[in-house]
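Standup notes
- HV: blocked on the assembly model, inputs below
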Amino acid sequence: MLTVNRYKCCYCGACVAVCPTCSLELVETWLEVSAECKECGLCTKICPVGALEVEA
Amino acid sequence: MKCDLIVVGGGPGGSMAAKTAASAGLKVVMLEKRQEIGDPVRCAEGVSMKGLNRMVKPEPKWISSVVKGARIYAPDGKRVVMSESSSGNGYILERKVFDRGLAMQAAQAGAKVLVKTRALGLLRKDGAISGVSALRIGEPLQIEAPLIIGADGVESKVGRWAGIDTTLKLPDIESCAQFLVHDASIDDEYTEFFLGNSIAPSGYVWSFPKGEKLANIGLGIQGSRSKPGEAVRLLRQFMKTRFPNGKVVEMVVGGDPCSGPIDSAIADGVMLVGDAAHQTDPFTGGGILNAMQAGIIAGEVAAEAITACDVSRSGLKEYDDRWKEDIGKIIAKSFQLKEFFVKLTDKDLNHLIGSMAKEDMSKMDLAGMLRVLFRLNPKLLWGLKSLII
Ligand SMILES: Cc1cc2nc3c(=O)[nH]c(=O)nc-3n(C[C@H](O)[C@H](O)[C@H](O)COP(=O)(O)OP(=O)(O)OC[C@H]3O[C@@H](n4cnc5c(N)ncnc54)[C@H](O)[C@@H]3O)c2cc1C
Ligand code: SF4
Ligand code: SF4
């Protein structure tokens, strides 16, 4: 599962830009993850603050 | 609600599109999901003075400082100093004020600006685009219009909704972090760039002064060389070695597209502008002026297309033709430059900057510097021959 650490996220939208399944939505100051997420982890790599993690 | 044109996104690209189209007589609605336009900032705020003045008359309150030139540091600390006086100086903006100022100009030209209003998807009637569904301060809102401009930034969805795949691959986006720093050693008149694969892999560190010893100090690294939290970690490391006493008063993070020009920024009833269309300069990362320029072109084409009652892909083709001819050519060149420079080792970078030690760079801009570099290092830079000469 993809988890968002809201205490770390600075709501910049970089992760949204790289998601190949369009599963992320930035709603002003928080991220929503939809059920289409394939847990590929691309978004975790681009995040400048490390707010995203794919957990087993 | 009904109008001629909906602009999604109230950044520089969206505001210039809305202003241009409204001035040409269209009924325009601009949606911005944030409650405050321009905040939080995702930018180092540097633009060329000449480039900005060509498009708008800057208000003094938009500008934090004026810079005279740039210093570029090799990994070994050797540096080259460039003056931008031949191509005009640079502004470091105050984007919170600047972005809102441009949105004000759009509103004054007649556009209706809706803040805290997020586009959720495109409406369609008989297969054709007929508007946008949105959430305005938490309440559903449908806006009808035959034409949409997607100026929704790096996280753009409008293109993807309309069938233009704007998903960025990791090598085509820079992961960035920046602090607003107060430090006595900051030079208020020069921008600084620090190169090196250990400080910013396939990217660079920048310091853009905002006056009174304040500067935006940040870095970007190529997405393919990033890992979770890497940009912030590297920036902290840089601060420790270079500005150990620097006081951080603000933090910025973001993604900056560097993909080169996309094949097409149009679909039936849709045009994409700015970061949404990857119109950032892939070499420098600068995207404000390109977004504004594309916004102006899109606004003009929108007015023509609505008057001609043809918002189909072919009716909007002029937009693709014009932005490609204008900013597109430079973006394509810059992409090739970037592809070349991201592969350089620290040894190459030291060699290149060192080679300029005896040259007078004081009156040179980036293009001039590249020509000198090529003359001094033909072997290393042979791959760039067609771009430089
Ligand atoms: C760290 C960093 C440093 C940079 N430094 C520079 C620099 O020094 N100089 C320079 O020229 N460029 C710089 N850039 C690039 C520059 O910030 C962008 O290119 C520029 O902001 C693009 O303008 P835009 O109008 O296309 O998009 P944006 O300014 O990103 O505006 C898009 C707007 O759309 C809104 N939006 C998104 N989705 C929706 C939706 N569904 N509904 C409603 N609204 C929506 C967003 O909230 C946002 O306000 C930098 C970028 C980064 C990340
Ligand atoms: S990239 Fe990271 S900081 Fe930016 S919006 Fe996504 S999770 Fe938040
Ligand atoms: S893990 Fe992959 S599919 Fe899931 S949100 Fe991140 S990028 Fe998208």
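- HV (later): unblocked. Residues 2-54 of chain A form a domain with the Alpha-Beta Plaits fold (CATH 3.30.70.20). Residues 3 and 45 of chain A are 13 Å apart (CA to CA).
- Next: hand off to the docking folks.
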